[in-house]
Amino acid sequence: MRRAVSQFFFWTILCGVLYPFLIYGIGKIAFREQSQGSLIVRNGKVTGSVLLAQKSDSPEFFHPRPSAAGFNPESGAASNLGTTSETLRKQVEERRKYWSERGGVGEVPSELVFASASGLDPHLSLKAVEYQLPLVAKARGLNEEQIRHLKDLVAQVSEPPQWGIFGEEKVNVLKLNLALQDSAQLAQRSDGKNH
Prior knowledge:
Elements: H1 2-30, H2 32-35, E1 39-42, E2 45-49, H3 86-101, E3 123-125, H4 126-140, H5 144-157, E4 158-159, E5 170-172, H6 173-182, H7 184-187
Antiparallel strand pairs: 1-2, 3-5, 4-5
Helix pairs in contact: 4-5, 5-6
Main location: membrane
Keywords: ATP-binding, Cell membrane, Ion transport, Membrane, Nucleotide-binding, Potassium, Potassium transport, Transmembrane, Transmembrane helix, Transport
GO molecular function: ATP binding; P-type potassium transmembrane transporter activity
């Protein structure tokens, strides 16, 4: 009996106290930014996390993938609607209609009409960003030179495939929108005041 109690306390302290503190400490030292949630802090305030999609309704900014969870990180999840679901079909048609009414040309990229599995995917493919680029440029009233600058901005924030081999080149929508917001060359509308 005494041996069993000793074993219980030994393993509880080792696995329940020491091991978690060791892993926590390693995370804080080796992965400082990630262990804090990869937060973006601007002017002393948390703007968001590079790991989570942020809702964007303004036509002057890029939109992330739709979210079945309403972009709520506490309830992030897929809709679990299957390919035969009438609800899913209606959602997809409404989303296609939205992009068409905004002036989108060609086939709407699937990631702009289907929510991600988590409902919080922060990235878009270059194809989905390039689809939105003329729409954002139009909403901002950008001239040709500013549109070239916007394309350069997209290239600057794009990320390569993971470890250079997994997936494809992608863009973090929050980082892109923050870079767009900060860009002095794109901050003003193209009304002859820009140099």
